[in-house]
């Protein structure tokens, strides 16, 4: 004789988690190994910081020396505020106008891509490079970049907010050459 059970199948959030499929991206859906890892992005960032330091020295530092303004790094000082503007403008303008690449990314052969747009839009770049870089530049908040190590698409906190990631251009070029043949 068969026993009837009054147990219901799992419903609600548990079912949704069990049935959750891998999120499909509208654009730029690559295998995991196409995404640039933490270290290459870190060294590209260091090169970008060297470029920004040179720009700040030329654009702000030299005139500040001429007129005798103190070079305080505090955000509320004139020098600190202008330095922040150069820092953010560097990342925003180069990323948008250079198809997802800053000088550091060009040297290391990596590029920012968006999963929902073919080309990076101004709102995407402003969120990723403006707002998120402003928040993540603080000493304790820089830990938000370490998330890159543990995520499948190698995304840091700013990438999650803007639905972007960074890919290696050599792998993209090899893929395009392989697909066309």
Roughly what fraction of the amino acids lie in strands? 5-15%
Please report the number of helical segments. Answer: 7
Number of distinct beta strands: 2
Approximate helicity band:
40-55%
Mean pLDDT: 83
What is the global morphology? elongated
Major β-sheet annotation: 2 strands, antiparallel
Order of strands, main sheet, comes to: 1-2
Order of helices and strands: HHHHEHHEH
Poorly predicted ranges? 14-22
Protein structure class:
mainly alpha
End-to-end CA span:
64 Å
How would you explain this protein's 3D organization?
This is RDD domain-containing protein. InterPro entries: Pra-immunoreactive, RDD. It is a multi-pass membrane protein. By secondary structure, the protein is mainly α. It has one domain. The protein is built from 7 helices and 2 strands. The chain has a two-stranded antiparallel ribbon. It is elongated, with a radius of gyration of 22 Å.
Summarize the structure.
The chain is mainly alpha-helical. The chain has helices spanning 13-19, 38-67, 78-97, 103-108, 122-136, 157-162, 169-180; strands at 110-114, 164-168.
